[in-house]
Predict the structure.
Amino acid sequence: MMKKIDATGQACPLPVIQAKRALETEKSLSIIVDNEIATQNLKKFASQKNVTYRCIKQAANRYEVFLSKESEVEVSDKLLDKKQETQTSDIVKTMVFDSLTMGSGSEELGKKLMSGFIASLLEQSVLPKYLVFYNEGVKLLVGELAHSFDELKAKGVTLFACGACTEQYQVTEKITSAEIVNMFFITELLLKSDTVINI
């Protein structure tokens, strides 16, 4: 029986994450979403994973998306993921967080984007080696996303937070997932990293 998922009311990228998780064990599924952007995100996901995609608009705010994969495609996709992981495992990637939001402009949108980014990061097979937090970014470690950073730590990612910043925002004692370090340490870490990504 085809697996069915109701993702109505869920913000991006949650429908895609649910689809990805389901296809790890299922050959096909249908997922209900309530906006066209979600259908386009699922279509892009299907294209990236070599999964067949079909969408039926059932009402103004109701779309049913069908995703399915063939066994040979699944095997090929897993081999590709394994090859990419092998090729990139020795590259030191560091992500830097200096704000509660992602990008500039609307603060509300920026917080949603940050939440979506962290949720998506947790689903990746290849993760950065380090996460660095400074300025207002240290507040992420004690906010609504704190549990997600605990999960990343459990997956082997090492987190560092600027001590001067945690003191400034009075969150030092509340941080459990990151090691408190100074700016000299952060400077050396960034210079030694092969890739630094500022979020």
